Amino acid sequence: MKKRLLTFLSSVFLATTAFATEFKDFAQTEFDSLMQQGKPVLVHIHANWCPTCKRQLSVLEPTLKDDKFANLTALRVDYDTQDDVLKAFKVNRQSTLIMFDQGKEVRRVIAETHADKLVQFITLP
C-alpha cells in the first residue's frame, strides 16, 4: 500500500513539474514562432549582477509554476550580451518585463518587484 501511494505521489509530482513554466534563454527563432502562433510570451531583460532582476525572478519563477501559466512561455534576454535584442525591443534598462499576446506587445514594466503587481502583470484576461 505504501509503495503504491509513493508511486502515485511521485507520478503526480512529475506530471505537475513537467508542465511548469520556466525561463528559457531568448532565441529569436523561437520568439518569432511564438509570435506567429499568437502565444502568450513573457520577456525578461535580465542581468546577473542586477539585484532588481534577482528580486523579480524570486517572485516570477515560483509563480510561473502555477497551472494557470502553463501556456505562457517565459524568455530571458541577457542584458550584457544580447544587444541586438535590446535594440529590437527598444530597451535600455535591465529589469524590464514585456508581455506579448496574440503576436503583439500588450504591456511593459521596468523595475517592478512587488509580488502582487508582478502576478497581475503576467496574468492575461
Automatic annotation (TrEMBL):
Annotated ranges, domain Thioredoxin: 12-125
Leader sequence segment: 1-20
One Pfam family hit: Thioredoxin
InterPro entries associated with the record: Thioredoxin-like_sf (IPR036249), Thioredoxin_CS (IPR017937), Thioredoxin_domain (IPR013766)
One Gene Ontology cellular component annotation held by this UniProt entry: cytoplasm
Annotated PROSITE patterns: THIOREDOXIN_1, THIOREDOXIN_2
Gene Ontology MF terms: protein-disulfide reductase activity
Annotated keywords: Disulfide bond, Electron transport, Redox-active center, Signal, Transport
PANTHER family: GEO12009P1
Protein's UniProt name: Thioredoxin
Lineage: Bacteria, Pseudomonadati, Pseudomonadota, Gammaproteobacteria, Pasteurellales
